[in-house]
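User: Show me sequence and structure for the first protein, then do the same for the second.

Assistant: Starting with the first protein.
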Amino acid sequence: MKIAILSRNKKLYSTNSLYEAGIARGHDVRVIDYLKCHMEVTSLRPSIYLGEEKLEGYDAIIPRIGATYTFFGCAVVRQFEMMGVYSVNESVAITRARDKLRSLQLLARKGIGMPVTTFAHDPRAAEHLIKQVGGAPLVIKLLEGTQGVGVVLAETKKAGESVIEAFRGLNANILAQEFIKEAGGSDIRCFVVGGKVVASIKREAKEGEFRSNLHRGGTASVTKITPEERSTAVRAAKILGLNVAGVDLLRSNHGPVVMEVNSSPGLEGIETATGKDVAGMIIDLIEKNANKPAATRTRTRGKG
């Protein structure tokens, strides 16, 4: 099969791992910088170009869209979809997952456990937001943040009010969330591929830090998850329409709660810690689904 990996950098671990896995299985794999693409939007023959080259004949794409370029990246993914190309994660699902508020609302509607979360436009509502999440300490997040950037632990009510007012003063959209103290600065990353948790790791924050992101110095180790945690991760990915997802859970006193669902989860931490060929599993997913009729393989058609 002819597979395109939409990524800005072939040297990134995740991109290279997917590339090598595809080549090892005998596929024609190419890494395409989606920011260098341009599109011809027509009703009869939609097309996409890389410079002067017309990109055609692809069976599948693997989107690795950076958060900064979600809008344009998803437009490229959508164009490939219009051309009948199978996408591991569809454009609608990616945009759902990238919008933290929207994704939490979708998960809440289906009964997925999550920390108490509040959202408001008016900075004068800060005191009420803090009260609704159970008071301090609380976590305040930028809606557009990734890899732990824009996430603040406010240890006192006054600090929480100050952070909320500062972010809103910059016209930034933020969430306030309940702080799950019993998680102890650790979370569970469940890697979902094709409706199954194929690998899971426990990520622990470095000393003096509450964010467990590996990009922020956290450590990863293999962990065994419970049936409830497995079910929660699979359901969360399905609700957002993601075939491939990194579902981040916290172990709370009232069961697993979802912190975030990532549409472009990194492979380095999970493959290094578990020794599993997760990239190969993603290629296997493509082999099983790329040649199916488009109407039977989509997970988000008509759902916006």
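Switching to the second protein now.
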Amino acid sequence: MLKERSRERHPILGVVIIAIIVAIVYFFFFYRNADSVEVVAYPDVSQYTVYDGRQAYEYWRTTLNENQQILYEEMKEAYLQFLDSFSTKSKSMTEDEFQEVYSAVLLDHPEIFWMNSYQVIVKPFSDKVNTNKKIKLFYHYSEAEAKQVKERIEPEINKLVEEASKLNTDFEKILYVHDTIITNTEYIDSDNRKSYQTLVSIFDEHKSVCAGYTYGFKLVMDRLGIKTVSIRDIGNKDSDENHIWNMVYLYEKWYNIDLTWDDVRYKDSEIIYNNFLKDNETFYKTHRMQKNMPGMESE
């Protein structure tokens, strides 16, 4: 009797095993790749509903290898087009290499203020991202919400760019934008810091943390045609907190500028310039130099 019962269970067990295999195959090869598309730039800039990304100075893109640059262009376009997911033509890369691409897009393009995060599939028993699978994107704002935000902040951005454009030299323009952003912004030391991590906080709420100062400054410099880079620290020398600032290209040389520290060092006094257009020797006594920064090799 025991042997007969055992034989009776085999067909049921086989069906269960087959069902599990089919479910796994469906999940990994069909569901995970559903709605994934290859990304190409729109031929007409009017097709972009918020910003088109064409005015940004893409310094960090140049620090990536050829394979990463393929992903950079695809990811940038996917975010500009508000895609839920996309497929890439780039070859497999490590998670760190993938993160470098995401960071490069974020630092080069502060106008894509709706960027939030991404999700990828890592190959089993490996640190390689499976680029054959779709890449999912997440957003701070929906496309409709981002359009509404743009309508609110664009007049102030245009006014700042217009006033700075009237000045004669790049030095005067940089100084004017530096002072105007600081004058109109209150530094926030808040537990809810995530809501201040984009340029929206500068031009919409007039309250921000270092990310808002840095991204707002870069956006205006991009529109003025002045080469500017956002530099992100992964932890200051004496603190675990991250920080971010800018470098600008002036007089054929790169200079450091930290609007945040020029705003918050002495709260009750006028604007200070301890972190305004400083060379590396001076500036990196208080900040930490990052790899691949501009000016580390001859221009």
